[in-house]
Amino acid sequence: MGTRAVSWLPWLILLFITASVSATPSKKIPRLGVLRGSSLSVLEGSSSLRTVSVNLSENFQTFFYPQTLDHFNYRPESYTTFQHRYMVNFNYWGGARSAAPIFVYLGEESDLDKDINSIGFLVENGARFGALLVYIEHRYYGQSNPFGSMEKSLQNASQRGYFNSGQALADYAEVIINLKKNLSADSSPVIVVGGSYGGLLAAWFRLKYPHVALGALASSAPILYFDDITPQDGYYSLVTKDFRDFSESCYNTIKDSWAEIDKAAAEANGILNLSKKFRTCKPLESASQLKDYLETMYSIAAQYDRPPMYPVTIVCNGIDGGSQGTDILGRILSGIVASRGNKSCYDMGQSSFPSETEEGWNWQVCSELVIPIGRGSNDTMFPAAPFDFKEYADSCKYSYGVTPRPHWITSYYGGHNIKLILKRFGSNIIFSNGLRDPYSSGGVLEDISHSIIAVHTPRGSHCLDILPSREDDPNWLVLQRNVEIEIIHGWLLKYYEDLLQSN
């Protein structure tokens, strides 16, 4: 079964925040997410950033569905409902009478407003397919919080118990089924799309609700980074590879810098001197605070290493550009300046408050989304930090009073022996990845069957394929998107053939 490596693949068939978070284990689990908020502030302020070809939020209408709080129990409180937000664009739809398709974006760990303005794949292909476009918010985020706010929800153990992926998938199913009923669109096929954590949800939705969704595009979904299926150092090994492939000297400087930071911190007034050298907005509390900041900066640069700016290139050019007559820590500061801009001070988390996304993500990884990411002493450019489940569980117990369930995801959705199992009963899933994305180490990179297909690009990054297109997009990215569209086209053609025969 050939993997679709788009860099050489011919045209096929006819037819995506700040780095610091609260003291929870999410520090050791780099956040998923199609976009990364303000983490690359310099890049986001650049006119060279991704320019949307259309106003993505234009022509969307907002609706609220009375969503069931608890789909899996029959206690009185389970029947409580909350207002679940979704948005619909009718402009391209061919209508129910023609069984025109419905493209549904499954929201991830952010409010729907961010999704609607950052995901271009649906809008840019709606007209071609005559598709109805639907974006559904994830429960507990944005305006779809059953208890009013994330802060309020997470304070109560009973309330946060309804906050999990299984409930979210059931939410999506209810919204889609109700919408199709209201539109008399029972014959309209549904294609679900998701990126990052949403990509996991898209793949799992197709497996759990095949009667609702004909197919799924799961972009940058690390579906195999659970229960030790993927080596723990997979993520940071790829971060290291991204930096080393670009510049050996940059890689060596970063690798040597951790000991230099510790050495400087051990000197008299060491922490104060480090604070001055790195222009921190408030004095550092420890060397670890600086190292955490740098670790996250490098990881974000690799995970979101997107054209045309390529953050890894920017960081390394800064580090290498400061090499003449500059010590190691001076070169590291040059990397910060290149990435964040030349500021009077850098906020390394001392002044930040957790966002809604960070708060929600912290809970999700402390309950069911246990992604065991760690690293040994000499397999990456970072200091050793093995994944210690006991330490991780103790932290979650302290924060939320619960012990994480590291085997639940594979028990509920599968993951072990995925090739053998999904080949038997799965179908119509595209697993798309960019191999610069560290999370691709936990992705599906080989075709599983003729309809469970891996599409990846060696130069791609996290969820790049579902972001809005640009006129200067590289050819390999254009081809990746076209391959995905043609695969979906094939699913729809087959569906209409079957529908015609059944009638």
Can you describe this structure in just a few lines?
This protein has 18 helices and nine strands.
Task: Please give a structural write-up.
The protein has 503 residues and is α/β, with parallel strands linked by helices. It is built from 18 helices and nine strands. The protein has helices at residues 41-44, 112-116, 121-129, 150-155, 157-160, 165-182, 197-208, 234-246, 248-266, 270-277, 287-303, 311-321, 328-340, 356-367, 389-400, 408-413, 418-425, 475-502; strands at residues 4-5, 61-68, 81-89, 102-106, 132-136, 190-195, 215-219, 429-434, 452-457. The protein has a nine-stranded mixed beta sheet, sandwiched between helices. Helix 7 links the parallel strand 6 (190-195) and strand 7 (215-219). Helix 9 crosses helix 12, helix 9 packs across helix 13 (328-340) and helix 12 packs antiparallel against helix 13 (328-340). It starts with a strand and ends with a helix.
How many beta-strand segments? 9
Average the pLDDT over all residues and give the rounded result.
Answer: 90
- Which value, in Å, is the CA radius of gyration? 23 Å
Total number of helical segments? 18
Largest β-sheet summary: 9 strands, mixed
**Percent helix:** 40-55%
Strand order of the largest sheet: 1-9-8-7-6-4-5-3-2
Strand portion, in percent?
5-15%
SSE class: alpha/beta
Alpha-carbon distance between the two ends: 34 Å
Order of helices and strands, N to C?
EHEEEHHEHHHEHEHHHHHHHHHHEEH
Low-confidence stretches: 5-23, 37-53
Shape: globular
